[in-house]
Amino acid sequence: MSEYQVQKGDTIARVIQQFKTDWKTVRSNNPEAVGRSAKNGNWFLREGATLNIDNSFQKSLEDASQPQKSHRQPAAAPISIPKSHSKIVFNDHTPLRDTTVTSKTTVAGGKRAQLVEHTIQAGETLWELAIKRYHVNLKDILAYNDITDPKTLQIGRKIQIYLPEKSGEEPVVASWYGQDFHGKPMANGEIYDMNGSTIAHKEIPLGTTVELKNTKTGEMVQAVVTDRGPYIEGRDVDLSYGLAKKLSLVEQGVGNLVMRVL
């Protein structure tokens, strides 16, 4: 647990990104340091207040972004894999030699998921595997594999990754964010483009592609989850300004959509 004094101009998104934590944790640990506007319902941090930041995962997250290098020590003993296991094949139909499907199982919350085993290669980072390749939460990879120090991972080590099964269509309440956040870093580390095809969601793994439809107008778009939010009760997704225009939600600000994970 560390402390941080809120500075003028600090935003919730910036603090969460800086300390690699989440809004729910910050809010529950610091009820006196946060407030909510009576005018628009937006949460904010009180300037000058001291935040108690639970960043126990921070070191692991930083370590996970470091590429794996060759070591003189022998690689960890491989996990035994039944011969019947098949390779994962992506859209280009090229089998990945470092990834093997093992089984389907039920994880927390009763959700069905596909379990795969990935063999660590030289130059890979856990962050890139989570965000760029498998589109899952990095914290889940660390937890499932009891990894407390990613620096100790050796090339050839096999890790388990759960890939959630795709869900059907679901209704969502959508809002949008634009100029105030344009050019600032998102949760995936990239810079926010208010005209890009991106959305923020609290739980869907970063990098996931979704389809959004305005059933009243018939307008439909595809987007990638690149950020976290929205943190206003009753809202499910935050659209970029560009997507909000395509779905006719700019003027009304908040509206109902149908979302499907692709």
Features:
3 domains; 262 residues; Barwin-like endoglucanases; six-stranded mixed beta barrel; Membrane-bound Lytic Murein Transglycosylase D, Chain A; 31% strand; globular; 6 helices; alpha+beta; 17% helix
Description:
With 262 residues, this protein is an alpha+beta fold. It has three domains: 2-55, LysM domain (Membrane-bound Lytic Murein Transglycosylase D, Chain A); 64-164, no CATH class; 170-261, RlpA-like domain (Barwin-like endoglucanases, Beta Barrel). The chain is built from six helices and 14 strands. A hairpin with a 6-residue loop joins β11 (209-213) and β12 (220-227). The two termini are 38 Å apart. The relative contact order is 0.14. Mean pLDDT is 77; it is low at 70-96 and 106-110.
- The order of strands across the largest sheet is 9-13-10-12-11-14
Largest sheet: 6 strands, mixed, barrel
Counted beta strands: 14
Shape: globular
- In sequence order, what are the helices and strands, one letter per element? EHHEEEHEEEHHEEEEEEHE
What value does the Rg take, in angstroms? 20 Å
Name the beta content range: 25-35%
Q: Compute the number of structural domains.
A: 3
Percent helix, as a range, is 10-25%
The secondary-structure class comes to: alpha+beta
Total of helices: 6
- The residue ranges in which pLDDT falls below 50 over 5 or more consecutive positions are 70-96, 106-110
How far is the N terminus from the C terminus? 38 Å
* Mean pLDDT across residues: 77
